Each structure stands twice: as C-alpha cells, then as structure tokens.
Amino acid sequence: EGIGAFVEEAPEGGVxxxxxxxxxxxxxxxMEAGDIVVAVDGQDVTGMILNExxxxxxxxxxxxxRLTVFRMEEDEMLEFSVTRERLLVPTVESEMxxxxxxxxxxxQFNAIATRELRAAVEDLMNQGAESIILDIRNNPGGFLxxxxxxxxxxxxxxIVLIERNVDGREQTFRTRSGDIAExxxxxxxxxxxSAS
Length: 196
Description:
12 strands, 196 residues, four-stranded mixed sheet, six-stranded antiparallel sheet, 18% helix
C-alpha cells in the first residue's frame, strides 16, 4: 500500500521518483518521474536512508500523505497530497512509438515475467512493430529461470549465460530457436540499477 511509484535514493538525499504507475495515486496527484521527495508530512527525509523514508511514504490504503517535492526542470519546491492505495506492481508496460517501434518496459523478473512480456511483444507486433525497445532500467532482478526465458524470446539457439558457483562448478543455460522476436531489431536499455 503506497503512492504507486518506483523510486531510488536521490544522489543529494531524499527519494527520487523513477517512474509513476499509470493512473496510480502519485500520477493522479501530478507527480512525475524525476521528482525528488525531500519531506514527508513536513519531516525532512534528505538525511535518511531510502528504507527509512519509504516507511514514512507508505501507509494504509485510504490515508493521505503530504509530500514536498523538488522538481529539477522547474527549479522549485512543490507540495502534493497523495491518497495511498493498495497497488498491484506491474510487471510490464508497453506502447507503440513512432516509426513502427514497439516499446516495452519489464519491471522485474518475477514468476510471470516471460508470460507478460511475450503477450506485450505479440501485441506490439500485431500493431505493426518492426523493432523493439526493451527497457530494463531499474529492474532489480528476480528469478534466474525467468531472466533466461525472457532472453529466449529475443535470441536464437545458443548459450545465454554460464553460472559458475564458488567451487567452480558451472551450469550452462541455453536458448532455443523459434520464439516470437528473434528476427526483430532490438535495443535494450539498462542503467546502474539493472540486475540479472
């Protein structure tokens, strides 16, 4: 239960909004990606670690939290009252862009990642996508088998990764041919918070 946003610790302190959930409480209140929460209900959070600040931001559904936000592009402080909700964290979001480019964001490698991603990519290709942008920025990782099967959607037969444990034993993970997006030009977006 919370405000409906992916966040990270802001470099200068506070909580940076990475992405707001579509039609979630934060978006409905007017918050945007890039906003930096500097106070929660009047309490300064710039000196707190991320988890401490999140304990103040999250709360029971139906309650309201007042967030003081610094918006860089406008160089000003803004106030938002956000009514917390019980949220289903999305696995995938997708949209068609110009020039027949399909965009799909994968937020985590959870147990349904491959299924959700396959459905989104199929939908984009049915809409005429001739290339795909796969966005795994700020994806914290998850299940190894899902990371492999997600890779398999885009890769022909071959080795996708080799896992080596501390005693030197190796396990090789392979992809198979014949998946939906193997012949589609692909760009993968990653950042310092991408895992798996």
